[in-house]
Each structure stands twice: as C-alpha cells, then as structure tokens.
Design brief:
mainly alpha; 3 helices
Length: 70
C-alpha cells in the first residue's frame, strides 16, 4: 500500500499544465490508474497529500530534547 500511496504522490508532483487543468475541473479520479478499492483510495490519499503540500514531501517531526536523556 505504501507503493501505491507513493505513486499517487509522485503523480501529483509531476503534473503537466494540461493535467492540472483536468484535476482542477474534474478532480484526481481521471488520473487514477487503479480500478478497485483499496488501491484507488490509497493512490488518491498520496495524490491529495502532495497537492496539499504543493508537491513537497511531508515534513517529518523532529524529536524533542536530547537523544537518550531519560
């Protein structure tokens, strides 16, 4: 499932202008290559995450405090 999420994320990062217009008008369903659930939904999650981050990878949370300071 991670691979499918990554495929959606990558697809959103590499949109052409024509594809952007399609997505803006009709949503991402037209570009989704998966025909069945749960793959279809997972691809859409990756695609939407990339679009919400403007195509940047999500920021990983940094640990608080010093390492091993318990």
């Amino acid at each position: 499932m991670r691979r499918i999420f990554a495929q959606g994320f990558t697809a959103a990062e590499r949109l052409t202008e024509a594809q952007r217009r399609v997505v803006d008008a009709d949503g991402s369903a037209a570009l989704n290559p998966h025909a069945v659930e749960p793959e279809r939904a997972r691809w859409t999650q990756g695609f939407d995450r990339a679009r919400s981050n403007n195509g940047r990878a999500p920021v990983k949370a940094k640990p608080f405090g010093r390492k091993g300071a318990d």
